[in-house]
Predict the structure of Fpg/Nei family DNA glycosylase.
Amino acid sequence: MPESPEVQALVEELGERTVGRVVREFDVLEFRVVKTRPRPPADLVGARVAAVARRGKHVDLGFDDDRHLVISLGRHGWARWGGADAASGAPPVLITIRFDQGPALELTDAGGWVSLGVSVVDDPAEVSAIAKLGPDPADPAYSRSDFDRAFAGRRKQTKAVLQEQESIAGIGNAYSDEILFRARRSPVAHASTLSGEALEGLYEATVGEITEAIAARRGIPIGELKAAKVAAMRVHGRTGEPCPGCGGTIRDFAFASTVGQYCPSCQTGGELLPEPVGR
């Protein structure tokens, strides 16, 4: 799942390569992707890209006529430049955007079901997922009070709060694992049980992890961002490997409809969390 550090790097590259360019063609190969049927992407033909911004895990292409194309990447969506040789097994292209100059932008989806979505709107807040976004820890103005509002009185697991876009924008499964490991906190502890000291450490881990990851991904070509993210993970996706903190073994745990990773020694006082069924 694309998360804010990789989406920020994508947005910055799109900004460098598309701002000032005019849309010449929208080729929609999968019509389920279009979420604003009365306003299809083809309506943007002739418009000039004025700005590209990140909103949580969404991409916002702003045009010179004040319209916006919001790209919701979902669980499996991503982008690549046309003309590059696609690797064997590369995800299918669902939308191609051609400009007056330079390569086309291809939007892809690697999932078994379509999670990518695009919307043509006058205001990005017309997209409900953006309207509901909470504060973003990558924002320099993000504060401890913003963070505390997400956790105060919540009888919800800490990992779930970190991934709740209405409370904290931009974090998904991978970075929530990394944040919790950095803070040495259990992913399943209820938010309401965290002390002030624990919240301070988790706040610092959240801001540090996201801002440092954004800086680390900056300038990496969009086709290499997924590999860069995987390589940077300390616990996420590292099941069975030695913990970089204590040398113990990284383990899986069942979380909602997915799987997370943690170090029992560093994060849960040695307690083993329930593993996914079949493990």
About this structure: The domain at 144-267 is CATH 1.10.8.50 (Helicase, Ruva Protein; domain 3).
